[in-house]
Design goal:
The complex is a heterodimer of chains A (about 625) and B (about 290).
Chain A (H helix, E strand, L loop, with lengths): L3 H7 L3 E13 L5 E13 L3 E5 L6 H7 L8 E10 L2 E2 L5 H7 L4 E4 L3 H4 L6 H5 L1 H5 L5 H14 L18 H13 L5 E5 L7 H18 L2 E6 L2 H7 L2 E6 L2 E7 H6 L4 H10 L5 H13 L1 H6 L4 E10 L10 E11 L4 E5 L6 H9 L6 E6 L2 E2 L9 H6 E4 L3 H4 L6 H13 L3 H14 L16 H14 L4 E5 L7 H18 L2 E6 L2 H7 L2 E6 L2 E7 H4 L6 H9 L7 H8 L38 E3 L5 E3 L4 H7 L12
Parallel strand pairs in A: 3-8, 3-9, 6-7, 7-8, 13-18, 13-19, 16-17, 17-18
Antiparallel strand pairs in A: 1-2, 1-4, 4-5, 9-10, 11-12, 11-14, 14-15, 19-20, 20-22, 21-22
Chain B lengths: L9 H38 L31 H37 L1 H16 L2 H12 L3 H28 L2 H9 L3 H37 L11 H7 L9 H31 L1
The chains are: A alpha/beta (about 625), B mainly alpha (about 290).
């Protein structure tokens, strides 16, 4: 920057100063709603400031206003924003365009939708440098390659020639960081850059971001809802709620000694407590009736389930297997957790159990009675006993029907209720999920996210089911709301003795509510262990990776973890063409040449309980796996 | 990755608001026009000053006067009465054809979307083939083969515009079918009829109605065009298209007899369009 010398001489330390910022949204009826209320803060040069809060807290709105931008329907109504020597709010359109993407850069949540699929990465990464004419094409390309290297992208010299669909989600997110950093911006805004990623990918991206930020000394604003992620990245944290600042402090203080009640509740919700009473009860039941269980059929038993798509091969198995050899059982009143990254087949499993996807092989039995693989062959009673709660409450509730109507349908359909009895039961259900009675007359669009998810749950409960399939029910919710839903699920289980199949990508959620935990990788159960054993070493190599990738709610975790993990994978020879070869092989740090790449792994019991799918013995795993860094506040 | 160039400034907002208000105002005009013509279709013959077929003036192509509000036609008949009588044909035929096209199209579309697979593909391709036949040509063929009658006109227009309705409804149904509330209903064990009528249709009705309005306009234009070519409603009955046709010789002297029915066609189509645009706008705002 040509005026940087002068800046340093004259300016105060703060690069960015925001005072009395007000952003207003206009509603249809002409009323204005203030969505950011008189926010003040400043960012020093080289500092990473985090804006944290739940959805609707105004964190993204504030971040965008730093570029002099407000989303459609909103406008910046007042205040002052100074970046370097620029008064952002009094700049004209041309000056703003000059600044955006050059002096202030933005990294969005979804890299997949931020890249043009028809152009190469390199073209798009250097585009802003060329547009703003800060350097020549050759210089920009050289710089981009340097950034690719700094961001630990594979093959930095040539990755720029690829198209967006040819790299993974985590790599694309890092390429977007390169795009933002190409012009040496004074300020980088990162808007939930890792939220859409799996934990194992998130850690790579975080590590790359952290290195680059440290190396270049960039000033950054990091917007996130996830305290644990923010703890790794930020120097200072601003806690927002309803558009106003609740607390400002350095990261260590916010994490260890939060002054504000809301911050405290955020911290509490970030590490959901284990619902001990329920699990203790099941454990005792399991031990005292151990011999009974062997005789009595479990509520749900899945044997040898294979499901997929594509034209069938010679043995009649689908060409692409989404689920492969799933065996599990769910006892009455117990909860089984299914974890795995996106694409691992979690949702397909739930749909197969619900009968919406016909498996190619295997059987599903309810109370020992085999269930028809398709919807057509199931009785209404079987439908009633298994209910599915979908991930996205926004689309799971018919927008044209009132909540009362949505709840009354299963009551009429399964239980033949009508009139006064139906009204009474609907009110009971709303009460059960802790919604006010007047919600019955409202449309789903008039409820908040958490309320919708409760209504979604109430609809499943209306059937009086024995088993509820919960597909990522807390994933779309804010931490505090999600914690409340988990609490509710645990309570319902105690009251109604229902079983859950709880599907999630979030290990701490699963840990909080489940008795048994199944880890899926590429459609296979790589580990199936009771919760207590799940958290005790040794682990399946993938479980270990998963567990060690979950950010801990304290500073320095990222450095600690990254310092320990060996990046080098042991070399292996030719991989056998068999479909049953360990799916985790390409990523496994404990693979054995001549064994893992040629012989399908066998399912075996572990000393500490549960079973895993791995060639390595318990002793080997124990020896090679670094102990997990204990997560404070979470007891297992 | 740079945000779009919508500035945060206040003028944008007020402009948006003005546009919105302006739109609903236009919609009301559209509604008024449509209601007016519907009323005329119902009441027209009973309030018309003369009989449609009666020759009441010694002059032909006389201009606007107190006796003949819209002038007289090439035989000296009262234009106002002829237009009022014609309203029934124009609107009645178009309405019947539109309803037929949309209901049949919707039913086939829902069936195809829910069945999926090769049945869906077969139906879709067959109807695509039907779309590829030029509508006027198809109508000419039908009239030439079977002779013009009211029922044939309705059928012809309905066949011509059914595939369009099918396409719209099918694409809506395919999208809504994957929504989780439909999945939830399937997992609950609901039948096909319940899923389509209770879960899916209420969420499709907005676009389907808007499409129906547009289709109505197309049908009006098609039938008027046919009448203009003397292939539509046959004399002594006349719809607006026929009125334009029979008075075309007066165009040179600027007779109101040829302009008025053309204006009526324009007024109806514009009115329906304004109304639809407003319906759409309302829906978009709600979403």
């Amino acid at each position: 920057m040509n005026h940087s010398d002068k800046d340093n001489a004259q300016e105060p330390a703060a690069l960015v100063e925001v005072s009395a910022l007000r952003v207003v949204a206009s509603k249809d009826d002409g009323d204005d709603v203030v969505i950011v209320k008189d926010v003040d803060f400043s960012i020093a040069r080289g500092e990473v400031l985090a804006l944290i809060g739940e959805s609707g807290s105004g964190k993204t709105t504030i971040a965008l206003s730093l570029m002099g931008y407000a989303r459609a329907g909103c406008h910046i109504a007042g205040g002052r924003i100074r970046i370097g020597q620029r008064e952002v709010l009094s700049m004209n359109q041309a000056a703003l365009e000059d600044m955006r993407g050059c002096d202030v850069a933005y990294i969005a949540q979804s890299a997949a939708s931020a890249f043009n699929p028809a152009r190469t990465l390199m073209d798009q990464v250097i585009e802003s440098a060329l547009n703003h004419k800060t350097m020549s094409r050759a210089a920009a390309q050289a710089k981009a390659i340097g950034l690719f290297r700094a961001l630990a992208l594979p093959d930095p010299e040539h990755i720029g020639e690829r198209y967006p669909h040819q790299v993974s989600g985590g790599q694309l997110q890092r390429a977007m960081a390169a795009m933002a950093l190409i012009t040496d911006p004074e300020l980088v805004i990162l808007d939930e850059p890792t939220t859409a990623l799996d934990v194992t990918t998130q850690i790579e991206v975080l590590r790359a971001f952290k290195n680059v930020v440290k190396e270049i000394g960039t000033t950054a604003v990091y917007v996130s809802h996830d305290l644990a992620v923010v703890a790794q990245m930020a120097d200072r944290i601003i806690v927002l709620r309803d558009g106003s600042v609740r607390e400002v402090g350095v990261t260590a203080q916010i994490l260890t000694a939060p002054a504000n009640a809301y911050t405290q509740s955020l911290l509490a919700a970030a590490a959901p407590a284990v619902s001990l009473p329920a699990s203790a009860a099941t454990v005792s039941v399991q031990s005292s009736y151990a011999q009974l269980i062997e005789q009595k059929e479990p509520l749900l038993r899945i044997r040898g389930l294979i499901a997929g798509y594509g034209s069938p091969d010679g043995r009649g198995l689908p060409g692409v297997r989404i689920l492969d050899d799933i065996n599990l059982k769910i006892e009455r009143g117990s909860t089984i957790g299914i974890i795995g990254e996106s694409g691992s087949g979690k949702t397909t499993l739930a749909r197969a159990v619900a009968g919406m996807i016909a498996p190619a092989r295997g059987s599903i039995a309810l109370d020992g009675m085999p269930l028809s693989p398709t919807l057509a062959g199931r009785s209404r009673e079987q439908f009633r006993r298994i209910q599915i709660v979908f991930q996205n409450a926004d689309t799971a509730l018919n927008p044209a029907h009132s909540i009362g109507r949505i709840l009354s349908r299963p009551l009429a359909f399964y239980h033949g209720l009508s009139g006064e009895a139906m009204r009474k039961r609907t009110a009971e259900l709303l009460d059960l999920v802790q919604l006010p009675a007047n919600v019955a007359n409202r449309l789903p669009g008039e409820l908040s996210g958490g309320q919708k998810q409760r209504a979604n749950l109430a609809r499943a409960l209306a059937a009086k089911p024995d088993l509820i399939l919960c597909d990522e029910v807390t994933s779309a919710l804010d931490t505090v709301v999600a914690a409340a839903i988990l609490e509710l699920l645990a309570e319902l289980r105690r009251e109604l003795n229902v079983s859950y199949m709880f599907i999630s990508h979030d290990i701490s959620t699963v840990r909080a509510i489940c008795d048994d935990i199944v880890v899926l990788y590429a459609g296979r159960m790589v580990a199936n262990r009771p919760r207590e054993a799940m958290m005790a070493p040794p682990y399946h190599p993938y479980s270990h990776l998963l567990l060690s990738s979950v950010p801990a709610l304290r500073q320095g975790w990222l450095e600690q973890v990254c310092g320990r993990t060996p990046d080098k994978l042991p070399p292996i020879g030719e991989v056998s063409a068999s479909a049953d070869i360990c799916a985790f092989l390409p990523r496994c740090t404990m693979r054995v040449d001549g064994v893992c790449n040629s012989v399908p792994p066998r399912r075996r019991n572990m000393e500490h309980g549960g079973e895993i799918l791995c060639h390595r013995s318990d002793a080997d795993l124990q020896r090679m796996q670094l102990p997990l860094i204990p997560v404070e506040g979470v007891t297992v | 990755m740079k945000p779009a160039h919508e500035s945060s400034a206040r003028p944008v907002i007020t402009a948006q608001k003005r546009r919105r208000n302006g739109r609903s105002w236009l919609g009301l005009i559209g509604l008024a026009i449509v209601l007016f013509w519907l009323a005329m279709a119902l009441l027209g013959p009973s309030i018309s000053p003369y009989d449609a077929g009666a020759i009441v003036d010694v002059d032909v192509f006389s201009g606007i006067s107190r006796k003949f509000w819209l002038g007289t036609d090439y035989l000296g008949r009262d234009m106002l009465s002829r237009i009022l009588f014609g309203t029934r044909y124009t609107i009645g035929l178009a309405l019947a054809a539109t309803l037929l096209a949309c209901s049949v199209g919707t039913a086939i579309a829902l069936f195809a979307a829910l069945t999926g697979g090769w049945v869906d593909a077969l139906i879709s391709r067959v109807l695509d083939a039907l779309i590829s036949i030029p509508s006027k040509m198809f109508a000419l063929l039908m009239v030439a083969t079977f002779g013009s009658s009211v029922w044939l006109l309705i059928l012809t227009a309905a066949i011509t515009y059914m595939p369009g309705s099918y396409r719209i409804v099918r694409s809506l149904a395919v999208n809504i079918q994957t929504m989780e509330y439909v999945q939830a209903a399937r997992a609950r064990g609901e039948g096909v009829l319940y899923i389509t009528c209770v879960e899916m249709l209420p969420n499709m009705i907005g676009p389907v109605l808007a499409d129906m309005g547009l289709r109505f306009v197309f049908v009006v234009l098609l039938l008027s065009g046919l009448s203009f070519l003397s292939l539509g409603v046959q004399p002594p009955d006349a719809d607006w298209g026929s009125l334009v046709r029979e008075n075309i010789s007066g165009l040179g002297e600027g007779a109101t007899a040829v302009i008025m029915p053309a204006l009526a066609i324009a007024m109806l189509t514009i009115g329906v369009n304004l109304l639809i645009d407003n319906l759409r706008g309302k829906r978009a705002r709600k979403d």
